[in-house]
Amino acid sequence: MQAPFSCLHTHTDFCDGKGSVEDFCQAAYAKGLSAIGFSAHAPIAKKTGLKTDWHLPDDRLDEYIGTVNAARRRWAGKLPVYLGLEVDYIKEPNGSSLSGPADRDFQSLGLDYIIGSVHYIFPPQWRRTLYRG
Ligand SMILES: [Zn+2]
Fold first, then answer.
1. What is the mean pLDDT of each run of 10 residues along the chain (133 residues)?
2. CA 4 – ligand 1 centroid, Å
3. Closest by alpha carbon to 7, among 113, 110, 89?
4. Is residue 73 part of a domain?
5. 100 located within any domain
6. Distance from the CA of 86 to the center of ligand 1, in angstroms?
7. What is the C-alpha separation between 14 and 36, in angstroms, rounded?
8. Total domain count for the chain?
9. Orientation angle between helical segments 21-30 and 61-74, nearest 10 degrees
10. Residue 105 covered by a domain
11. In a 3-state reduction of DSSP, which class is residue 91?
């Protein structure tokens, strides 16, 4: 017996992925996944002042949540759809947090899950220099 597979780490065209939420649901269903979750790179511009082209824009967060929740309703009974975000840990050189998965604004969104990630390192002498892994 083959173990069921699911995927909870996905990026659509809301951030740096290719394809819509619906495209991903259709592909997951066609491949027999037991569930799919969406984990857009959480918005960081307002919180950190960092501008990127690969995070969900702050002004599209509500649209993202609405789109995934609509897919959840549309696929009910066929494919479980989960709403998540991938949230960067970003700290100032002094250790104060600019962004993190435990932040109240992310925790209050009613998400099913959050992926914590580290894409940035800010050495004190290179403050605001971006590294992407
Ligand atoms: Zn990711």
1. 85 97 98 97 92 94 98 98 96 82 96 95 54 45
2. 21
3. 113
4. yes
5. yes
6. 6
7. 16
8. 1
9. 30
10. yes
11. strand
What would the two tokens of residue 51 be?
Answer: 């501008």
Residue range(s) defining the domain that contains residue 30:
6-126
What is the whole-number distance in angstroms between the Cα of residue 114 and the centre of ligand 1?
11
Flag whether 96 is in a domain.
Answer: yes
- In total, the chain counts a number of residues equal to 133
Residue 115 Cα to ligand 1 midpoint, Å, equals 8
| CATH number of residue 84's parent domain | 3.20.20.140
Instruction: Tally Cβ neighbours within 10 Å of residue 98.
Output: 17
Q: Calculate how far, in angstroms, residue 59's C-alpha sits from the geometric centre of ligand 1.
A: 20
Contact of 48 with 91, CB cutoff 8 Å: no
Cβ density class 31-44: b for 16+ within 10 Å, e for less: eebeebbbbbbbbb
> For the whole model, what pTM was predicted?
0.88
